Amino acid sequence: NPPNRFSPIYRDRQEHDWLDPEDPAPRTRFFRDHTKTLLTANHSPDIPYAFGLNPYRGCEHGCAYCYARPYHEYLGLSAGLDFETQIFVKTDAPELLRRELRAKQWRPQMIGMSGVTDAWQPIERRLEISRGCLEVLAEFRNPVGIVTKNALIARDVEPLAGLARFHAVHVFLSITTLDAELARILEPRASAPAARLRTIRELTAAGIPCAVLFAPVIPGLNDTEMSAVLEAARDAGAIFASYSILRLPHAVGEIFSTWLEQHFPSRKEKILSRVRELHGGQLADARFGRRRVGTGWWAESFRSVFCLKRQKLGYAEHLPPLSVESFRTRSYEQRSLFD
Predict the structure, then answer these.
(1) In principle, which of 3, 72, 79, 221 could form an S-S bond with 251, CB 3.0–4.6 Å?
(2) In the prediction, which pLDDT does 331 show?
(3) pTM of the model
């Protein structure tokens, strides 16, 4: 639980502190997020959408590598355990989304869902906020692109299928590894790999276009699984495949390094060295066009092999385009009162 880079005060807990029975492991707590707007403008040229939708801040999945962890520092919290156990919930998200889609200035376009934290993390099973947002999107027939690593999204097949009928949805299942034990320690509260593959099958059977995101690629740990992941996802029904290279911004570098020391100490230096090679000597390169794919001979070699494998397996070069042709305007909603 590294210190917040914006805070001058930090309690340095020693090893015996963590073993003190009077000071148990933190419990997950949820806080109501009273945000007044939901859609966040995105100006990143390497992200395929201009507006993002994230119903939660923080994520229970607890993935050691998550690039979103530093966002919690802007809330005065830690990118470590606080990110996993202090979750902010936008309970009014569906209502806010409906209001923003009704606004005169809104131009129908793809919205990215789960671009920061996973909208189908465990608490969603009880709160159903992301489902509510999907129902609003289906009501307006506004296109959405989704990334998740939780099989819970299969619960929402009805609104997803409604969007799919109007070519208004893509779903990416993020699969980091097929090794259930590695997934358990790397992504402790996310769905098991087999469950994610099952979700691809279920959504595909319902007519929902699904893709696989092999991410993050961790050189020296899971990179050799690329072919197996693409084959398994293709067999499950995925029609497109993409990937993203590991990057470790700010405190994530310390968190992931500690995780490697605990679980793969003999590979730690090799993995971190390769990550630095991919990002110009740093653990992360924030420059657009480089941050997700890396640079150098290893990055180019992996990209070439990935593209060849994707082509050999018969994946599409691109996902089918999302359509805004069926977007329902405010006037349409008013006329429907007299139907």
Answers:
(1) 79
(2) 45
(3) 0.90
* Cα 129 from Cα 18, distance rounded (Å): 34
Closest among 47, 49, 54, 89 to 68, alpha carbons compared? 54
pLDDT confidence tier of residue 336, bands split at 50, 70 and 90: low
Distances (CA, A) of 224 to 5, 85, 173, 214, 298: 35, 32, 19, 11, 13
Distance CA 198, CA 151 (A): 8
User: pLDDT tens digits for 149-164?
Assistant: 999 999 999 999 999 9
Between the alpha carbon of residue 111 and those of residues 49, 50, 142, 321, the distances in Å are: 6, 7, 8, 13
d(CA 247, CA 267): 17
Distance CA 195, CA 152 (A): 9
Residue 143: phi, psi to the nearest 5? -65, 150
CA 141 to chain centre: 23
Gyration radius of the chain's alpha carbons: 21
Q: Are 86 and 72 in contact (CB under 8 A)?
A: yes
Query: Which uninterrupted H or E stretch holds 303?
Result: helix 297-312
pLDDT at residue 330 tops 60? no
* Residue-wise pLDDT tens digits, 208-226: 999 999 999 999 999 999 9
Looking only at the bridges linking them, the beta strands covering 40-41 and 51-53 are: antiparallel
H-helix or E-strand containing 273? helix 268-278
CB 219 within 8 A of CB 274: yes
Reduced 3-state DSSP string for 80-147: CHHHHHEEEECCCHHHHHHHHHHCCCCCCCCEEECCCCCCCCCCHHHHCHHHHHHHHHHHHCCCEEEE
